[in-house]
């Protein structure tokens, strides 16, 4: 399994790039979002990759984060979602958008991806909703640039919501971490999670995330 490619970006095509690794060129398929974030041709580049093995073909798909790569693998586990559809979903929503959509059960957002119909989108949100919290939390342990800051920032507020609730909920810290990885400020994330816990003290992580995201969603 080829899990990561690091080398020089040789050229870009419509849906893939060629990365030179010590004289060996690897064709890596990427989404429009990933393509837009790559450095200019000739510069160093690194991507996490997932290898798709078929009888007559081998294809590498590239991602800028392990969270995005994991969503790709999970999306392809859903009936009706192949590599092309998975890349379309990630290209349309991004890793954070996919996390939000699946945590909230928002199949309409998933259905915006090219080639993904309403029934397939509903199947995606239903089958993967219980896996959303664990994938969202990966950002705190995998992203060297942002993950540590998110975890440290989320730690202080967690005692405050605990004092506002009848009893401690172990899922609270996981929900805070996941919301932090999605880009929410520690204060607003803690407030939303605290309110969610107050309404349902026994909620699991997935339920807390969904409730908090609804509270944080723009009103109007």
UniProtKB/TrEMBL annotation:
SUPFAM superfamilies: DNA helicase RuvA subunit, C-terminal domain, Nucleic acid-binding proteins, RuvA domain 2-like. The keyword Transcription regulation does not apply. InterPro entries: DNA_helicase_Holl-junc_RuvA_I, NA-bd_OB-fold, RuvA, RuvA_2-like, RuvA_C, RuvA_C_sf. Residues 171-217 form the Holliday junction DNA helicase RuvA C-terminal domain. Keywords: ATP-binding, Cytoplasm, DNA damage, DNA recombination, DNA repair, DNA-binding, Helicase, Hydrolase, Nucleotide-binding. It comes from the Bacteria. GO terms for cellular component: cytoplasm; Holliday junction helicase complex; Holliday junction resolvase complex. GO terms for biological process: DNA recombination; DNA repair. It holds the Pfam family RuvA_N. Coiled coil: none annotated. Residues 1-64 are annotated as: Domain I. Its main location: cytoplasm. Belongs to the RuvA family. HAMAP family: DNA_HJ_migration_RuvA. This is Holliday junction branch migration complex subunit RuvA. It comes from Yoonia litorea.
């Amino acid at each position: 399994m080829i899990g990561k490619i690091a080398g020089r970006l040789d050229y870009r095509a419509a849906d893939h790039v060629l990365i030179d690794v010590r004289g060996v060129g690897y064709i890596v398929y990427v989404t429009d979002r990933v393509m837009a974030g790559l450095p200019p041709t000739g510069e160093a580049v690194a991507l996490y990759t997932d290898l798709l093995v078929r009888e007559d073909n081998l294809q590498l798909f590239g991602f800028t984060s392990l969270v995005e790569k994991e969503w790709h693998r999970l999306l392809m586990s859903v009936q009706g979602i192949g590599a092309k559809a998975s890349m379309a979903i990630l290209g349309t929503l991004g890793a954070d958008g996919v996390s939000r959509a699946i945590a909230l059960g928002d199949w309409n957002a998933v259905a915006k991806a090219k080639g993904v119909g309403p029934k397939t989108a509903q199947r995606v949100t239903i089958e993967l909703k219980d896996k959303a919290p664990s994938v969202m939390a990966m950002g705190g342990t995998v992203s060297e640039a942002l993950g540590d800051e998110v975890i440290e920032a989320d730690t202080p507020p967690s005692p405050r919501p605990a004092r506002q609730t009848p009893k401690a909920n172990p899922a609270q810290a996981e929900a805070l971490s996941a919301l932090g990885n999605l880009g929410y400020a520690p204060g607003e994330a803690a407030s939303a999670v605290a309110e969610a816990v107050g309404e349902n003290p026994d909620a699991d992580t997935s339920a807390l995330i969904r409730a908090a995201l609804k509270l944080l969603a723009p009103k109007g």
